[in-house]
Amino acid sequence: MCCRLFLVFVLSLFLGFAYSEPGKANSRSFKLGAPGALVSTGFLKHLLPRFSLKTGIRIELVEETADADARFSMAGRGTPVFSGSGDNWYLEVQSTRNEHLSRFEDWITGDIGRKTIEGFRSDGKVLFTAAVATPKTAETVALAGDAIRGEQLAVSHCGRCHMVNEATRLTTIGSTPSFAIMRSFSDWQDRFEAFFSLNPHPSFTMIVGVTEPFDVSRPPPIVPLELTLNELDAILAFVSRIPPADLGAPIQYQ
Ligand code: HEC
Predict the structure, then answer these.
(1) 12-41, pLDDT tens digit by residue?
(2) What is the model's pTM?
(3) Which of 235, 229, 246 is nearest to 158 (CA)?
(4) Using CA positions, which residue lies closest to atom 42 of ligand 1?
(5) How many angstroms separate the CA atoms of 142 and 37, rounded?
(6) What is the longest distance spanned by two Cα atoms in the chain?
(7) How far is the C-alpha of 204 from the C-alpha of 214, rounded, in Å?
(8) Ligand 1 pocket by C-beta < 6 Å: which residues?
(9) Is 151:89 a contact under the CB 8 Å cutoff?
(10) How far apart are CA 230 and CA 172, in angstroms?
(11) How far apart are the CA of 173 and the centre of ligand 1, in A?
């Protein structure tokens, strides 16, 4: 009995799952890679189940670097599918064989997919638009300060957790909000100015002359982060120049 099952399993591998009947769950699926920064927005939890519900095709979300049939990326290859996080996102197909994947591609670029993309809200805000964005220029308020130094400081001090820029995409903690996402909050400036007092930072952050020095009897649990106010100023100048993630024409429903 068990050997027969095993044989069927091996056979089905050989025949490329030709044995699976339509409707059998395991064959109606494909693997989709996505960077942690995109996953952490919650957007894919909104998008993917809606496709699966319509089609019965399951999408297995895997890490950006894992083996996958396709991935969402900002690298500019593949089919442009939505805009957000300050950039255009593409569906990069790795294997062309998967009919379910083609179905997904049709869906996400079609009417329903586009409406689904734009139906997503994070804190009441539209983060992604189906229209492919042309980079916005004017209109962002750039703060005075040394943005170039700010970027370097942000990469070295914040980049071990946050995705600060493209260079820190792969080294950061996926569940930590990216700078581009946080820049899209209307009160981003307040949050960044006070970040050292907002969790989780107080336990490991010291701003010279502002916060109390670390208690010697309770050292920070992780590598501490020390900045001067000038350095924080430079980081703010850099952040003010990051295009907010809800880039693209604001959508008016009225
Ligand atoms: C050790 C990891 C770590 C480092 C280093 C770090 N952060 Fe964070 N930061 C986090 C996490 C995790 C959150 C999300 C907290 C949450 O969602 O409640 C966060 C949230 C934030 C927020 C939003 C806070 C809020 O409540 O609105 C800001 C702003 C921020 N970080 C700025 C920075 C800046 C600027 C730096 C570097 C100078 C930095 N962070 C360094 C882990 C880190």
Answers:
(1) 444 444 443 444 445 789 999 999 989 988
(2) 0.51
(3) 235
(4) 161
(5) 24
(6) 74
(7) 8
(8) 157-158, 160-162, 176-177, 182, 191-192, 195, 198-201, 222, 225, 227, 235
(9) no
(10) 25
(11) 11
